[in-house]
Amino acid sequence: MTISETPTLASRNQLAERPLIWLGAITAGVVVTNLFAPQILLGQIGRSLSMPAWQAGLISTLTLLGYALGLLLLVPLVDLVENRRVILRTLGCAILAALSTAFAPKPFLLLLGTFALGASCAAIQMMVPLVASMVAPERRGQAIGEVMSGLMIGILLSRPAASLIADLWSWRAYYVVSAALMALLAGALGRYLPALQSPARASYGELLRSFPRLLREEPVLRVRAWTASLVMASFTAFWSAVALRLPEAPFGLDAKGIAAFALIGVVGAAATPMAGRWGDKGWARSMFVAAHLLIIGSLALCAWAGALESRIAALLVLSLGTILLDVGITTDQTLGRRAINLLRPEARGRINGLFVALFFIGGGVGAAAASLAWTLGGWTMVCAVAAGFGVLGLVTDLVSRTGTS
């Protein structure tokens, strides 16, 4: 397949575009919950299996580490193997890993299960290049935006959903429910997912060795992965610290209130299809600038909210800032995805895997920065640091035109 053949492929499947995009969005939303739900379940899991605090903390760490390795070792398979087959097999591994985690009798087996589950969640990033390949370039941004909206909704709902299921039944029930939902998805994907054979002709080892070359040869990938890492750092810095700030005055929220507040961020995910559509119209550069300005301004609002005396006013301002922050972040992510999926068709799996792996590094940096900022200067310092990542993204926009078309 060459770039010129992509529109022909898309038009041949035009009637299937809408259900394919919805399947991609639902798959991303359901599967991604497994990456973030453990963060809210650590306490219950640790008590249930008599795990010391350090060992319980490994649950979330190993899940995300598994995901990072899955991005680098499994996602490149879509450039080598027929896409539907590799997605279904990876999703099948995720189902087995979720069930293994749910019924793990000992800490070691649970940690092994969560690691395997994290790696198998790489199926999300296998769906993105497939959807992109089946849509014409002039509609690709909108399609990726809609898939990304499912991903963002899944991320934001993962913690409250896991908390609700665990409160109603147990932490094990969450993994059983997740396995059941993924099994339903596998049935739908097996029936409706189109087959797509990558044009790449290389060995698996050659694909893995091509990562450094792709970074060196594709400036669009470098720049867009850099800004995506920065906005992911803002995202994780904010959401890592906001749960510490909300119980305090003037907000005064309890655990249920904090869970409800997390749902506010879902509103921001509605911006992803719009951002993709604007990118398709040639407004990507302006939208990148607007996204990073929005991140900076929204965090200023969030910092101001913490200084207000009125509880209602503080919650309203913080809610507005949170929505605008998520709009800015999802806009950068969506437009960045669009830019990299207009690159080499034969390397979309590797390019998507690299892109996500790099912005997850940004997420780790953001979480660490938030912890330090909270210790040194509290909520205001956290907001300043998170806004600083947005400033770096804005500077990148102003000095580089790479990946803004």
Protein architecture, described:
The protein is an all-alpha fold and 405 residues long. It is built from 18 helices and no strands. It has helices at residues 5-12, 17-36, 38-48, 53-73, 83-102, 107-120, 123-133, 137-168, 171-192, 204-209, 211-217, 219-245, 255-262, 266-269, 271-280, 284-305, 311-340, 348-399. The radius of gyration is 20 Å and the shape is globular. It starts with a helix and ends in a 6-residue tail after the last helix. The model is unreliable at 1-15 (pLDDT under 50).
Topology:
Blueprint: H1 5-12, H2 17-36, H3 38-48, H4 53-73, H5 83-102, H6 107-120, H7 123-133, H8 137-168, H9 171-192, H10 204-209, H11 211-217, H12 219-245, H13 255-262, H14 266-269, H15 271-280, H16 284-305, H17 311-340, H18 348-399
Helix pairs in contact: 2-7, 2-8, 2-9, 3-4, 3-8, 4-6, 4-18, 5-6, 5-7, 5-9, 7-8, 7-18, 8-9, 8-15, 8-17, 12-17, 12-18, 15-17, 16-17, 16-18
